[in-house]
Amino acid sequence: VSSEQLCLPRRLFCPVKGAGPVCVCDYQFSDEGLAEVTDRLKEMLDLDAAQEDLDTDQETAAETIESILMESAGTKLAVETPMDPKRNNYIGVAMATVVALLATAASLLYLDDF
Questions:
Q1: Cβ–Cβ < 8 Å for 65, 83
Q2: pTM
Q3: pLDDT by residue, tens only, the chain of 114 residues
Q4: How many CB atoms are closer than 10 A to CB 37?
Q5: What backbone torsions phi and psi does residue 66 show, to the nearest 5 degrees?
Q6: Predicted pLDDT of residue 100
Q7: Phi first, then psi: what are they for 15, rounded to 5°?
Q8: What is the pLDDT of residue 65?
Q9: How many whole angstroms separate alpha carbon 15 and alpha carbon 54?
Q10: Of the chain's two ends, which shows fewer C-beta atoms within 10 Å, N or C?
Q11: Measured between alpha carbons, how far is 62 from 30 in angstroms, rounded to an integer?
Q12: Which of 78, 79, 68 is nearest to 2 (CA)?
């Protein structure tokens, strides 16, 4: 059994000079530095950006998903470990029920014929 870590990219923002509050975004992979991101912005968008112009605080680094490769009879089977197995799946159903009850009460109160 071998273990392999898969890293998700991080989104970086760069303001466009002369365009007000408009920003463009690019993805930084785990094996890349800020220099590669600025080079890609220059190549694709003809945007001259310095490394200090990049906003790296908007999105934090993603959690690493650990993937376990199991070898049995010469075949590889990838199994991902769940990130949070104790999530309560019924919160969405409860919220929808509350919204439906509130909508029913509002329609009975305000749309009732006098």
A1: yes
A2: 0.47
A3: 566 777 788 899 998 888 778 889 999 888 889 999 999 999 999 888 888 888 888 776 655 555 555 544 455 545 555 545 445 567 778 889 999 999 999 988 888 765
A4: 21
A5: -90, 130
A6: 95
A7: -70, 145
A8: 53
A9: 8
A10: C
A11: 10
A12: 68
Amino acid at 94: A
Q: Are 53 and 42 in contact (CB under 8 A)?
A: no
Q: For residues 70 and 3, what is the distance between their CA atoms, to the nearest angstrom?
A: 9
At a CB cut-off of 8 Å and minimum separation 6, what does 80 contact? 65, 66, 67, 68
Helical (H) or strand (E) element with 107: helix 91-110
Q: Residue 64, SS3? A: coil
What is the DSSP-derived secondary structure letter of residue 113?
Answer: -
Rounded CA-CA distance 110/65 in Å is 50
Q: Which two tokens stand for residue 99?
A: 């919204």
